[in-house]
Amino acid sequence: MIDRTHTRREALRLGAAASFVVPALAAGAARSAAPAEILNVSYDPTRELYADINGAFSRYWKDHVGQDLKIDLSNGGSGAQSRAVIDGLQADVVTLALAYDVDAIADRGLIAKTWQSRLPDNACPYTSTIVLLVRKGNPWKIHDWGDLVRPGIQVVTPNPKTSGGARWNFLAAWAWALKQPGGSPASAKAFLQKLYGQVPVLDTGARGSTNTFAQRGIGDALLAWENDAYLVLAEQPGAFEIVAPSISILAEPPVAVVDRVVDRKHTRTQAEGYLNFLYSPLAQDLIGKHHFRPRNPAALAKYDAKFPKIPLVTIDTQFGGWRKAQAQFFADGGVFDQIYAPR
Amino acid sequence: MTTATIAAAPRGRWREASILPGFGPTLGFVLLYLSLMLLIPLAALVARPWASGWDGVWGTVTQPRVLAALRLSFGAAVAAAAINTVMGLLVAWVLTRYDFPGRRLADAMVDLPFALPTAVAGIALATVYGPHGWIGGPLAPLGVKIAYTRLGILVALVAVGLPFIVRSVQPVLQDFDAEVEEAAVTLGARAWRRAVSVVLPAVAPALVTGFALAFARAVGEYGSVIFIAGNMPGRSEIAPLLIVIKLNEFDDAGAASVGLAMLVLSFGALLAVNLVQLAMARRGHR
After folding, report:
1. Which residues of A touch B131 (CB under 8 A)?
2. I want to staple A252 with a disulfide (CB 3.0 to 4.6 A). Which of A124, A198, A306, B149 is the partner?
């Protein structure tokens, strides 16, 4: 599961990033120290993104701080990764799919409760959204969420109980249903029930669903992370099309330093430098290149053309934050369980 | 049979059952080993779910969704082990009684499910038995769906369980004296009669052992099943997946409750199988 990516990148232009990244007080302390190693525990679809960023950052760290820094990367389902950190996986930083999974770690005292205010943009250096992926030529004329529940259409999405991406999928569909004429929580629940009634396979993670749809040819539409959808397009050119629904959700994958681990390993400087680096122009450009939506206006402008203009609801305004959404929809006995209750 | 030897040992002074030296150290080592490997981890599992008392555990285990998952896991495991008992005996019979080109290759292939990572087996099965696969494709127009249904779970469990039966039965068939069969022929027994009255009783204890092993493996199987099951709550969701789901919900007590239920049920099933074996061994020695 761990990729070693520290030697991958050639020389990189860093320019303006320099002053931004290294906290002044820490630069001296870490200079000419022994080689260090930090572990980034992340969710599934960031594999390629962090492979690039880790190379860029260790090069940057060597050039500006003089220390050899190796960054290990672990990918998996967001919930499972959160669980692993709670159970003792020595993650210096976590970069997960949704704030609830970081909150869960904070609830057990490994991360300060204030983690989300320690970095800009609610500690989310990039965003993404949920789109629909259909087969070439869009044979079933699927243009919006409502088309997914037409008779005979099969929809592929992972299990929200085990997948962070699947929770964003679920909430995006819910937000659309609420906005329909006469929309109410009851009508939204009925819509979701119908939608999940047309799901033939509930994989445990987003990558699993993507493979089920793209490699095994199951289903007519895939509810996917925007960045994952672009990866599929690149892997199998001409086989699929991205459909931008009329409304979706602003997915905000957060990042945090795991305080208890970095204090024990004495890697706080490196871990904080790493997360700050994510906001630098260089990393923001890599973020755009890997089909995540950058926060930096310049990087966003550069990649603007590939991100469809979808009205996006947010987890905070529409659902009152992740803790509330988790309890209402995905906890034991929540809306998702009710949908699958035997009728 | 070992069970019979133990039963025949003199009672009363249990320590003097054997004249071989080294009883103390070996027993001590075995107990330590079993404790480290089995008893302590299992004790941790048994101790875990009681955060909200007996009601909490019972409430979790009797949820319709949990019951459905347990039924599916144990039902499919029994069915898969039963299918393997018949088909595995046939495979073992062919491999030991006949010589044909590629026999050694076929013999080695039987072990593959042991060696293959279960996820690989699951993905391969889902591909082949899926609606666009080599086997699933031609069946799809006939309305037969295998991958992403309960049938798919059965296929995966049969695939991973096969070597247990074959490897249990094969040595017995190899050692089985051909003279006994020849004697049966000279006494006029026909093929069917020879199979039922002569061969089957000899391999029956090994078959039961193989059944138990295949069943135990199938109950706990996770990796291969989740790729082919479809994982629909209440329909094709196996109990081990439900444990993972509960862990992801940070419901440790709930996960441990389901784990405990599986432990109790598995232990009961394996105990029953052992009793059957014991009865067979007694009858065989009379």
Report:
1. 217-218
2. A124
Based on the number of CB atoms within 10 Å of its own CB, is B176 exposed (0-12), middle (13-18) or buried (19 or more)?
A: middle
B144 close contact with A: CB closer than 8 A? no
Whether B161 has its CB under 8 Å from any CB of chain A: the answer is: no
List CB contacts (< 8 A) between A217 and chain B: 130-132
The 10s digit of each residue's pLDDT in A315-335 is 999 999 999 999 999 988 899
Domain that holds residue A256: 2-124+252-306
Tabulate helix, strand, coil % of chain B (nearest 5): 80, 0, 20
Q: Do A159 and B254 touch (CB under 8 A)?
A: no
| Per-domain boundaries in chain B | 51-285
Q: Which CATH number characterizes residue A24's domain?
A: 3.40.190.10
**Which fold would CATH assign to domain B51-285?**
MetI-like fold (1.10.3720)
Neighbour count for residue A29 (Cβ, 10 Å): 11
Handedness of CA A123, A177, A226, A294 (dihedral sign): negative
Compute the half-sphere exposure of residue A72: CA atoms within 13 Å on the CB side of its CA.
12
DSSP B192-206: HHHIIIIIHHHHHHH
ipTM score of complex: 0.72
Instruction: Choose the closest CB to A216 out of B130, B230, B244.
Output: B130
Instruction: Give how many domains chain A has, as a whole number.
Output: 2
Q: Where are the alpha helices (DSSP H) in A118-205?
A: 120-123, 164-179, 185-197
pLDDT tens readout for residues A18-28: 444 444 444 44
Indicate if A9 and A83 belong to the same structural domain.
Answer: yes
At A71-114, the pLDDT tens digits run 999 998 888 899 899 989 999 999 999 999 999 999 999 999 99
* Residue owning tokens 């103390």: B24
Q: Using the beta-carbon criterion (under 8 Å), do A217 and B249 form an inter-chain contact?
A: no
At residue A148 the predicted structure's pLDDT band, cuts being 50, 70 and 90, is very high
pLDDT of residue B247: 84
Contact criterion met (CB < 8 Å) for B248 and A217: no
Please give the Cα distance from B283 to B286 (Å, whole number): 5
CB A249 within 8 A of CB A172: yes
**Domain identity same for A221 and A334:** yes
**Which of A98, A157, A161, A192 to mutate against chain B (most B CBs within 10 Å)?**
A161
Closest listed residue to residue A159, CA positions, set A117, A121, A200: A200
- Cα–Cα distances in angstroms (integers) from residue A341 to residues B112, B237, B277, in the given order: 39, 13, 41
**Which residues in chain A are contacts of B244 at CB distance < 8 A?**
80, 162, 204
Record: contact A341-B231, CB cut-off 8 A? no
Identify from B72, B132, B231 which residue to disrupt to test chain A contact, counting A C-beta atoms within 10 A and taking the largest count. Answer: B231
